[in-house]
């Protein structure tokens, strides 16, 4: 029995909800997100928010119940408040700057890396060693941050690379004579 799935998703103020069969669309100040729900769960809009119920008592329906509720809650947060991830650049000469809407990274390669963000994602570089990725879709914000981090992952000997803010890098000891 899903404990998360039992809770209705409260509708934030300023968010427009459209429920059309299996399609749910949320529109808020930060953007518009839509979700097509699987056949194993049913959605209904009540007084206290959007309610998710399993369509039958199968194992898959019970698994999709909590997951669907969590996806809808993330969509609600995304269209009202938005999500953001901050990346830090650590290393001599590692820099980030904006070039129009694209992100230009100097990461120690022979060339600069230019990253073009997908639609719905905004990237900012408030400092030369800091990148802020913001958007309404939680999954897409995390994916963009992971793609930027993948250009130069933090290495364990000196800790150089692109890391998430607050990420701890386990350090290794170097060679001994």
UniProtKB/TrEMBL annotation:
Domain of life: Bacteria
The encoding gene: rplF
Domain Large ribosomal subunit protein uL6 alpha-beta residues, every copy: 13-82, 91-164
Keyword Ribosomal protein: yes
Keywords: Ribonucleoprotein, Ribosomal protein, RNA-binding, rRNA-binding
Pfam families the record matches: Ribosomal_L6
Record-linked InterPro entries: Ribosomal_uL6-like, Ribosomal_uL6-like_a/b-dom_sf, Ribosomal_uL6_a/b-dom, Ribosomal_uL6_bac-type, Ribosomal_uL6_CS
Source organism of this protein record: Hyphobacterium lacteum
Transmembrane intervals: none
Keyword Membrane: no
Subunit structure as annotated in this protein's UniProt entry: Part of the 50S ribosomal subunit.
Name used for this protein in its record: Large ribosomal subunit protein uL6
Cellular component aspect of the GO annotation: ribosome
Family: Belongs to the universal ribosomal protein uL6 family.
Biological function: This protein binds to the 23S rRNA, and is important in its secondary structure. It is located near the subunit interface in the base of the L7/L12 stalk, and near the tRNA binding site of the peptidyltransferase center.
